[in-house]
Specification:
heterodimer; A: 156 residues; mainly alpha; 3 domains; 46% helix; 0% strand; B: 243 residues; alpha+beta; Alpha-Beta Plaits; 4-stranded mixed sheet; 3-stranded antiparallel sheet; 7 helices; 24% helix; 19% strand
Chain lengths: 156, 243
């Protein structure tokens, strides 16, 4: 019996340890977000939060629903693969509510972004030195942007 | 009596763990999008890139990227004929306003768009001390900005320099591969606005994605393959001088 006469200390120590464990688990309950560890060592709900941000570019499918006439024009020209918002800019607001009017584009600024001559551009890509080519005239004086080739007798 | 109390004390931690699982509830189910059915990446077809900067502008418009910071940017390489080891690289304002015509002709000149490589074995997510950045189950490297401390470990760890600290939020920002778009069936803002199709979003888990044929028939390279990051941004026609 003598061997256990001070066993009370051990029980007190064990009790402190267990209370500490419970405190740790209890605090974890409050401090660790519920979805933490759902997919891995991170907050699973973050995926949904990032995915729920609003969209600014509507996507060309949204444009084509209403602007079928432009689509027809583009089909015969070399800009067929250029998506609408590549030139027109982000227009999700216009796609959601057509009364929101997109701003008119300035072709003198817009076209040279792609077509100004540059040694680093692929050789096969159509390029011009705009100062020599048009002397500052807006490109849509001669070219129709949706189908840019100049056809004899008209531009459309 | 003593024995039962001891058993009770032993049972309590187990009960607490079980209760935690009850509180955690069932995982949130999203509408149509299944995380396990996608493995996203991007194809960059360099011979098609014209350095117009549309991707950079589109990214800033879509994601409210602050001025002077970039989630994606375009570099112009000039490799001279006599010193191919030391290319001259410039990227004025990330290529956002395009590139002025090169002063000197000759040598090799080309554009290289860059963005987060969405590595499957990403060095950046491995160093995060709090689990704020991660590779999502569909293969996109994301940042949980509510959890990020802004400690910059990941900014240093990224071998491609694709992360930055948002000057106002003081947390890490990076390309999300337009996660809010691709989960809705749209393509990324940069791919949507690329006029030549030089950038294409790819889903490696989609058997009908044209990427599978493209990978078989082209010489594809990733950036810094020696880092073994398993990058998922594939470059077609990448020059050896690109760092």
């Amino acid at each position: 019996m003598n061997a256990f006469k001070d066993a009370g200390h051990l029980f007190r120590l064990a009790a402190v340890f267990i209370v500490g464990c419970l405190l740790f688990l209890g605090m974890r309950q409050f401090l660790v977000p519920k979805s933490f560890g759902q997919y891995g060592h991170y907050r699973g709900a973050a995926i949904g939060e990032i995915a729920s941000r609003p969209v600014n570019f509507a996507g060309h499918q949204a444009c084509e629903g209403c602007h079928a006439d432009v689509l027809e024009k583009k089909k015969v020209g070399r800009h067929v693969q250029v998506n609408c918002e590549a030139c027109h800019g982000p227009l999700a607001k216009h796609a959601d509510d057509p009364s929101v009017q997109p701003v008119k584009l300035d072709t003198a600024v817009l076209c040279v972004r792609c077509h100004e001559a540059n040694a680093a551009k692929p050789k096969a890509f159509p390029q011009v030195a705009s100062a020599d080519h048009s002397t500052g005239l807006p490109c849509d004086t001669c070219h129709q942007p949706h189908s840019p080739a100049i056809i004899a007798g008209g531009t459309k | 009596m003593n024995v039962t109390r001891r058993h009770l004390l032993l049972l309590l931690p187990a009960a607490a763990v079980a209760w935690k699982h009850v509180l955690a509830g069932t995982p949130e189910a999203s509408s149509n999008y299944s995380l396990s059915e996608h493995w996203w990446g991007m194809l960059i077809d360099l011979p098609k890139c014209i350095g117009c900067g549309n991707c950079v502008r589109a990214c800033q418009a879509e994601n409210d990227v602050p001025d002077g910071y970039f989630r994606t940017w375009v570099e112009r390489y000039h490799v001279s004929d006599y010193d191919i080891e030391n290319p001259r690289v410039d990227s004025p304002d990330g290529g956002k306003k395009g590139f002025a015509p090169a002063r000197e002709e000759g040598g090799k000149n080309f554009f290289v768009p860059k963005l987060c490589n969405h590595c499957a074995e990403s060095p950046c997510t491995q160093v995060c001390p709090v689990g704020a950045t991660f590779v999502s189950p569909d293969g996109v490297v994301l940042v949980d900005q509510k959890y990020c401390l802004g400690c910059r470990y990941c900014v240093q760890a990224c071998p491609y320099g694709c992360r930055f600290i948002h000057p106002q939020k003081n947390v890490v920002e990076k390309c999300t591969l337009c996660y809010h778009r691709i989960t809705k069936g749209l393509t990324t803002a940069c791919c949507e606005s690329c006029p030549t199709g030089a950038r294409q979003l790819v889903d490696l888990k989609n058997p009908n994605d044209p990427i599978h044929d493209f990978l078989k028939t082209h010489s594809i390279q990733v950036l810094k393959p020696s880092m073994a990051t398993h990058a998922k941004v594939f470059y077609n026609g990448l020059d050896g001088s690109v760092r």
